[in-house]
Amino acid sequence: MRQPALEHSDSDSDTESSNAASPPYHSSTSRLEPSEVESVESPSPTKPRVERLRARQALQSAGAKKEDEPKLSTHSHRQQRPSAAILGCLAAAALATACIGWWLKRRKMKHKTQDARQLFTKCILAPSQAVMATVPAPPLLSTTFITTAVFGIEDLTPDHPTAQSGAESNTGFSSAHAVQVAILAGATCIGRTHTSEIASRMADPADRRSNPSEKNGVVGITASSAALVIAQQEADFAVTSDHLGGARTSAACCGLYAYRPTRGTVSRAGMTLIAGELDSVAWLCRTPALLPRIGDAFHLPGKTSETELAKLIVAQDLFGLWGDDLTVACTAALIGAQKWAGDDVAPVSLLVYLRDSVPAARPLMESDSAEQLMAAFGKAGTLIQQNEFARCRAEQAEQVQGNADTAFQEDTARVSGVDGDSVAAAKQVQAELHRAMHAALSTSNGFLILPTIPGPPVHHSASTDELESFERRTYELSSLATLSGVPQVTIPVVVPGQPVTSVSILGLHKCDMRLLHLAAKLGPVITQAAHQVAAAMAEQEAAGDDAQEAPEPGGSRRTGKPSRAESFKAKANEAFKRGDFDGAIAGYSGAIQADPHNPVYFSNRAMAYLKVMRFAEAKDDCDSALNLELNVKTLLRRGTAWLGLQEIESAQKDFKHVLSLEPNNRQARQELKALKEQEAMFADDESRIVNGTAEGLL
Q1: CA torsion 170→171→175→181, rounded to 10°?
Q2: Residue 310: which residues within 8 A CB-CB, separation 6 or more?
Q3: Which carries the bigger pLDDT value, residue 549 or residue 144?
């Protein structure tokens, strides 16, 4: 009776031992079989013989049936066994996949961390308990930062007596002013890059560092190690140096924010100088919200208010100077600026203005073109940089007095001086560029938006000509802020599926905090606009449709047969909307020739002249329009032209005239307020310019 069950148990002994935790089949069989046998083999003794025979027959019948049951049950069990095995295999496969994925992720993160940590030497310079307990909390509390090799960090012994409040720890000590300020503001220094900050080329064939934001792209020049560490989220920000665009270029290539303050506002004490007067403390970070906190920590100048409206000037000609690689960045900057500032956005042709305002650049130009003008600025910056670099290395060589290492000696040997005449010509360009940029920004009390780099970072495998061209144009763009001494913030334009690019905002001298707050708010707006532009371009490309630019809201196309003057005006308006201000000027000139008694044509041409910084012509057209008709818009435009001509009293007179006609006019109120606030600063800057020294200019 039990033999079939025993046969089943023996045949599946291995399986049963592996499934001891769930024995539903054998447990039910062991309970069922004895009860059935007992009920059949225990008939009542009072039953007659016939009944006992019947019972024996029933027993035999039950026995035969019982012989089949285990076989049937075994068959049924064997049908269920593959299902359980399959489930077990699937579970094991899922677990193995998860383990492999976890291992690969850990390996990738470990490799990433190793790559980042190979770029800096770890240390801990933490704020003191007194600093951490300060009320209100320091602006950089609970943040971490790294420094570059130009800032010294000396070792400390546990019993090292230090009077440097807030910058003491068991593992390091720094006498550099910028590092001290950051620690006193609550930040903890976790390391210093150990790569050289002196780079002669954009791409080194031996450099195999990977760019996390642009595959195979170059990572910049100086401060590139710090940029990679911040991009890989090893620290919150970096304290570094910048001379001719090192920090700004590296941030742009790695998708980071960077800031170079107004020259002279942050002490360089304890910092090894590379390019002398061009050197400045600079910062790198990933998030824009950290920029104003850094500014607060370093007590940067410039008042700001939450209700202040900024006027934005977009250097549209620079975005298209070297091709269409910056189309997304330019369009995003325009859209973001318009979302933020509304009508207070002015696309301008900056180079037309600089060509007339910086005549000292002409001897450095091979031809009269926009490209050659930018090349002249780059040459001037490079000449001053080389001269300062040679001077700094000579001073450092005297200090080490034969104790220099091989790398230092090789760097010093490469340095070649620049003749005095070339340096004098370059500094003349510097002085005139300072005046021109100051006038352009102070005219509208606004900010200038321009590209940080000429396009996406070129690949390491690019040709020598491509690398040199990218490097040269990057220097040219960086020289605008470096030579003029104005503050600059870089904003990354990172869109999935698109090459990384960057735009920059230049502010007025000593308006650093205004610029930092603007970047913190405008940065995310530009990023969002870049995503929208990239998506729209992808849709157009997928549809194969060359979409034409839609008319602006509220715009309309003229129909019928307008007069000859109105026809010229319509074409000029279209050119103005496209940013073709030279074409707009030609169109309005045609309208004026056809109808010289219409004040609208003069006023519109004056606005086009303002866009290309031709202030004298704009002022003359406003005079002609006002002689024909008194108009508030024309008065405002003439006031702006007066500012461009540095006729402050005449500008104030026109703005006050506007308020007499419209007491609540916002632009006139803002212009008068800005002139009042900047009056003292203008006097200080002008006195420095008169002194004639480059140090005084910046």
Answers
A1: -80
A2: 340, 341, 344, 446, 447, 514, 518
A3: 144
Residues 40, 62 contacting (CB under 8 angstroms): yes
> Rounded distance, CA 373 to CA 268, Å?
32
Counting residues of the chain whose pLDDT is more than 70, the rounded percentage is: 68
Residue with tokens 């060509």: 355
Task: Take residue 60 and report the two structure tokens written for it.
Answer: 């035999």
Quick check: pTM over 0.90? no
Range of weakest confidence among 264-278, 631-645, 652-666, 682-696: 682-696
Percent of the chain beyond pLDDT 90? 29
pLDDT band at residue 25 using 50, 70 and 90 as cut-offs = very low
Closest C-alpha to 196, from 249, 254, 272: 272
Taking the C-alpha atoms of residue 337 and residue 342, their distance in angstroms, rounded to an integer, is: 7
What is the spatial distance between Cα 601 and Cα 622, in angstroms, rounded to a whole number? 10
Dihedral of CA atoms 378, 381, 387, 392 in degrees, nearest 10, equals: -130
| Distance (Å, whole) CA 351 – CA 176 | 39
Whether the ω angle into residue 562 lies within 30 degrees of 0, i.e. cis, is no
pLDDT value for 678 = 66
Phi and psi dihedrals of 284, rounded to 5?
Answer: -125, 145
Q: Average pLDDT of the chain?
A: 75
Distance between CA atoms of residues 580 and 207, nearest Å: 43
Residues in the chain: 698
Q: What is the dihedral of CA 186, 191, 197, 199, to 10 degrees?
A: -130
Residues 6+ apart with CB under 8 A from 246: 197, 199, 220, 221, 222, 223, 240, 282
Least confident of 18-27, 542-551, 567-576: 18-27
Instruction: Evaluate whether 254 touches 246 at the Cβ level (below 8 Å).
Output: no
- pLDDT of the residue at 147: 92
User: For residue 503, what are the β-bridge partners?
Assistant: 451, 491
**Angle, CA 170 vertex, CA 165 and CA 175 arms, to 5°:** 45
| Rounded CA separation 150/222 (Å) | 11
pLDDT recorded at residue 46: 43
